[in-house]
Records
---
Amino acid sequence: MSASVKAYGGSSGYIVSDELRNSVNIAIALQKPLLIKGEPGTGKTMLAQSIAEALNMDLIIWNIKSTTKAQEGLYVYDTVQRLYDSQFGDGDVGNIKKYIKLGKLGEAFLAPKQVVLLIDEIDKADLEFPNDLLWELDQMSFYIPETKETITAKQRPIVIITSNAEKELPDAFLRRCIFHYIAFPDPDTMESIISVHHPKLEKKLLEQAMETFYLLRNVPDIQKKPSTSELIDWLQALVVGGVNPNRIKKDLPFLGVLLKKNEDLDTLLQQLQGKGSTKNPGVLGRFR
């Protein structure tokens, strides 16, 4: 990579694989958005935070919802406020610029120095949303017809786009991105991640909790498998609760930290009963 291009090498609070680090740096070098997919809890959002920290850049986050429109990321023309001012205000309603508010993409374009722009959970929006951003992300500019001005990026932001793969993204959009899938951490990688958050964890507790965690993830028909963030919270709960490590697998304490759906609790109970684990049938009941 050219010495003039900033390189991402990871950060103290985020464990990054060689493949992911390379994908980030290729996206930076080619000045293309980096599309990150993976199941919830695999660190997609935290990656953008890590990049901003490592490269000493500001982070601008555009959280996408089902109702979000691409236009909102560029700018919003507050016609309601202008109408209100025309009736009750003393300001100059002829100055339309007063009523133009830049969205997150607009803010990133006009930032005085390069920033990291996170477009988080793009697959929550409607199918046309990604296509509506193609021109702006390619050209790094957009036109405001109300003021007849073009907003052009002072510095091309590093664009990170996350997706939980809830729906397929358009091919035209995918062609313009560098893609990386974050696989769920294997036990060795997970231990490295946990050591960042719980550096002084008792070894026996960690071993028993990890074994139980991966067993739960492998239970058939679980709708929402527990994620990394939930494991980290569960470990904290086990420590605060003073749980004996030898009883973690048997008692499944604080199970509601890991499983968030009644259906999953029922599925787990059925699996346990199916394996003959009925000595304490009420063990899960108190977590509902």
Note: The chain has two domains: 18-181, 187-287.
---
Amino acid sequence: MKNVLFITYAWPPSGKATLHWPLAMLQHLPKHGWQPSVLTTDEDTFSHKDESLVKKIPKNLHIIKTSANEPFHLYRKFIGKKDSSPLLASEAMSTTNTSLRHKLALWIRLNLFIPDARVGWYFSAVPAGKKFLRSHTMDAIVTIGPPHSAHLIGWKLSKKFNIPHVPILIDPWVDIVYYHNLHRSKFSSSIDIFFERKVLQNAKHVIFVTNTTLSDYHKKYSFLQEKSSVLYWGYNEEYFSDRFPTKSLENDDNSKEKIILHAGNMYDYQNPIALWKCVKNEIANGKKLRLRFLGTLSPAVKKSLEEFSLLPFCDFIGFLPYENIVEELYKADYLLVCAAEKRHLPGKLFEYLRVGKPIIAFGDDNVEVAEMLQLSNSGILFSHNFTGNIFDAIKNVQPNIEFAKQFSREKIAEGLSGMLRSIITKT
């Protein structure tokens, strides 16, 4: 049995979506000869809690928890929120909030916390990691980011103990999409670029979750071409079963209200105005539609819904435990995904594909999302400038659930196992 140390910021009961991938890998890797251990934080105060995820922690897993050293207590005070008030990512990174406190807090976040607001964890995680590695032999270190601070921790421990490091970039690092149109000083950017390059140069192998991100990084760093690959985000098969029957829209009773559901956070830059316009027109023509949002919406998105007079037709559910999210997906008639970042293959897309409902996607030049939808016959990727009838355009889709099953995380864990064995063989 080989040993691997996973470094991940989020840990149950955190309800952060990025937690599901490492949890699944930890669950399935022992089947392929890998015994994982975990270095994580003692508490994530930014994210909502999902207590159901605690039962997903594998038994006999060695877990090292260290102080997160988060700045969010001070951040809440600075913007005038109570300590118990939840922080919403879609609001924290919004460009439409013009208050001086918000703008100053955003500037501090972008320019003083490098690579991200979780960098305080580095100062407790590195000493704890060193102590653990002095008494435990590890064959590889795997880090999950964002937060990309996790990669800095893995880099430091890898250099100190000469252990192969495998960073997994769920999102790009320096030019992550929500930095676009935000002011970051050249000095701050140069430090972040320095860290990114050093981590990737030292890495034995780098994993991306989309082909477009991998291609983008190959152009940026030619040295990655011989030591990088793609493992898709995927989904957990155990959450999906026949107890949630999929209903077809064919010959459906048009007198019944149809639900369009979006799961996850929606940011300013993802605002699908063409959809709101289409929904408004359809409702005016007598079609019964309802927009249902799980997660958070940015101020700009909420304003658009108000401008199109759609608020009476909206349900704002907020955060739900993951098991309840899956149930909501099955209850919906259409599933909405916003793929405004052309390198982004949203994690929820794999869950949508597995559910087998028609998918309405928005994004410009997102080749991978368009290809996934076409190959699975699950929906259409619409341009933000689309002016036609969206519901007429997708009425003939017939989702292929068997296509989705190739992306189960049990299969992805098998791929990760093979990649890890390959790099330690070369070491």
Note: The longest strand covers residues 34-41.
---
Amino acid sequence: MDSGLRPDRPARSDRAFATLVTNADYALGAQALLRSIAWTGSTADRVVLHTGGVDGAALAPLSDLGARLIEVDLLPTSQAFNARHARDTLHAAAPFTKGGKPAFHTPLDNFAKLRLWQLTDYRAVVFIDADALVLRTIDKLFHYPEFCAAPNVYESLADFHRLNSGVFTARPDLATYEAMLARLDQPEAFWRRTDQTFLETWFPDWHGLPVTYNMLQYVWFNLPGLWNWDTIRVLHYQYEKPWQTDHAKADRLQPLIALWEQYLDGTAPPDLTAQTAPCASS
């Protein structure tokens, strides 16, 4: 039976950082992410799961950066499930009111993250969204249990009870993958925030990572007291993306956008000790 995975080469480690690329925009984000991981000195594999519609020209720079490319099919979900989670349907039923999702956001693609549990040539996987940067080494997460994630904190401290699926630990296992598929596509199942809601339900006792392992960009202006450049390990550009230069919050987030641009440029690692404090951006 076709596994739905088509890797371009074998694994080179028993540990991997993985991300998901579903279009050219996220491929651009993945360039900055891959470079940021490399600059931490990690020897773990770097895996890019990508859907079939991503152009080879967008993927080539990721291969040049040492990534193992694995083409993945979307999950074999039912037509009814797909209709409920189509962009217009899902956004109408569960609109995003705190920030703007870019036009290329396709909710149904997010469920392809579950294919991580098929990567059984790895002992441990750490998933990171392609719109994130690793600012300091996070290799210790390979020794953390399944399932660890940071809270979805970006507006108030009341958000600590919810997880954000932009960074999490996984232990690949085919039995887990099959059980996830069976639970995912139940009649009338509706996952309000796609993979994030599903994973929070599948792992109700998820282990909480510090917010520094998935610092969401809105903390910059909503909760500046949580922002400390000396401790942030992963910076996650949720909602508006740093390669979108015309979004409504670009002026407020300019220091974070400039940092992402330095990683994309790739000339040299940015000096994290010289970054602007949040209070200076308002």
Note: The longest helix spans residues 24-38.
